[in-house]
Amino acid sequence: MNLVRFMNNRAPSNKRYQPTEYEHAANCATHALWIIPSILGGVLLYFLSDNQWEEVSAWLYGAGLSSLFIISTVFHTIAWKKSHLRSVEQCFHMCDRMVIYFFIAASYAPWLILRELGPWAAHMRWVVWVMASCGTTYVFFFHERYKMVELVCYTVMGLFPALVILSMTDRSGLYELLVGGVFYMLGMIFFKSDGIVPFAHAIWHLFVAVGAGVHYYAIWKYLYSPDNQQTSTAR
């Protein structure tokens, strides 16, 4: 099977990969599909909230989740249409990378805010946002210069806050968090496979969507569902 029309050659380390028309379309579709569900999901968590901290967590998580899919879709659409406003495309490409840090921090927010944590682990509630700020600052100054460093930053940001699990007395939802994390980690293989695997970036998008879906389910079930809240109250 001739893959030339589906995939371009791999880009040099100092340049950005240029998707084919087919890949552009797939990149847009695989994240645009989840914009409305992510917004509705955040709203649902808000209406299930019983106190202000649950409301704050719902807004943070909903904003992070929907922003990821919205900004990604906007960037890939602009890149696909080959806009003459290259500065706009570059800006949204940076935002596309920056929002990943915000999304990771927002994904941890409900667990860090609503679960009881040990003394040292409680600091992670603000440390995770400091890490996200450092990551976005790095993208601003070194965007696309050191791609492997960027990958390491995403990995550290995704894994380091999980250490708070050691101090949680209630570890329900841990299995779902692990499964979602595995999807993210496997997806990163495709994140770095443009020019090697056809539609690699779109496949990465699908892994992100599945990982986010699993984590959303865990947040809804163990932190917001009426049955679980009633059980927690009874205890």
UniProtKB/TrEMBL annotation:
InterPro entries: AdipoR/HlyIII-related (IPR004254), Hy-lIII (IPR005744). It holds the Pfam family HlyIII. The chain crosses the membrane at residues 25-47, 59-78, 98-114, 126-142, 149-168, 174-191, 203-220. It is found in: Endomembrane system. The keyword Zinc applies. Keywords: Membrane, Metal-binding, Transmembrane, Transmembrane helix, Zinc. It is a multi-pass membrane protein. Zn(2+) binds at H76, H201, H205. One of its GO terms (cellular component) is endomembrane system. It comes from the Eukaryota. One of its GO terms (molecular function) is metal ion binding. Its main location: membrane. NCBIfam families: hlyIII (TIGR01065). Belongs to the ADIPOR family. This is Monocyte to macrophage differentiation factor 2. The gene is LOC115817307.
